[in-house]
Here is the input.
Amino acid sequence: MITQNPVLVLNQNYQPLNICNVKRALALILLEKAESTVHSKEFIKSPSKSFNIPIVIRLMSYIHKPIHPKKISRQGVLFRDKNTCQYCGISSESLTLDHVIPKSRGGKHTWENVVAACIKCNHKKAGYTPQEAKMKLINKAKKPNINSNYILQSKNIKEWKPFLVSV
Ligand SMILES: [Zn+2]
Here is the structure.
């Protein structure tokens, strides 16, 4: 059902806020609570009107929403790190996840302690900290601004990407 397709919901200031489905997005547009920012060329028909199918909508008023903790995932980390090893910068499809402070040393499986690493660097770093291994991180590991579920969905929806660049 096309009405179940995901729609990216932006805050009034264009920050990604949420995901809803087409049905909910159309309801928000009809209530004038949101406007369609990006829509498809396809139409969806109701008995009285027809609408372009929304892909990205923007809320008309700013929502103050606390940033919720986002669950870490392999794909989320790889996306955040742009599929590049955070030690040597190589871009690869077969990256591993490295715990910056090794798990054996009490390092946690969190956004702040997990980075994408190539097999070679992961092997070299082994059970050492970056200082001990004399390996420097290209980017400090941090929690993305938005839920990793949005990130995963955005992989298949090219129209969402411009709004997710600040992830
Ligand atoms: Zn590497």
Notes: The mean pLDDT is 88. The longest helix spans residues 22-30.
